[in-house]
Amino acid sequence: MPNNILNYRSDLKQTANKLRHSNILAEVIMWNKLKAGQISNYRFRRQKPIGPYIVDFYCPKLKLVIEIDGYSHKNKINYDKQRDQYLKVLNLKVLHYTDKDILNNIENIIISLQMWVNTNTPLSSVIRANTPQPPSRGE
Fold this sequence. Notes:
Layout: H1 13-20, H2 25-35, E1 45-50, E2 53-59, E3 64-69, H3 77-89, E4 93-98, H4 99-119, E5 126-128
Parallel strand pairs: 3-4, 4-5
Antiparallel strand pairs: 1-2, 2-3
Helix pairs in contact: 2-4
């Protein structure tokens, strides 16, 4: 999706760059998985400006936004809702994971994302993802 469709704002470039270097542990862990190509080699961007917002991770080909909700998000519920609605209007899918999900269950999160990509299981436009359960040995 070209930047003009995403309403790219160059004034957010410096802020996005600072966020990329903030080294929040859950984001670093997720980024290491995404940049390693563990989701069918799809390319993700980190701290991507989309309109007036900067999303944690964005995959243009999947039209997928992944947000890591940490402690600071508890005071930003309305902001998060507005951002999700804005992204929905752009036909983007949004997945939310808590920082605890990433720290404690990253492998199952990656498995669930990979399964979605491989099966093209439709996602609703905005998803509040729960930590996926590990598959049983027989599956």
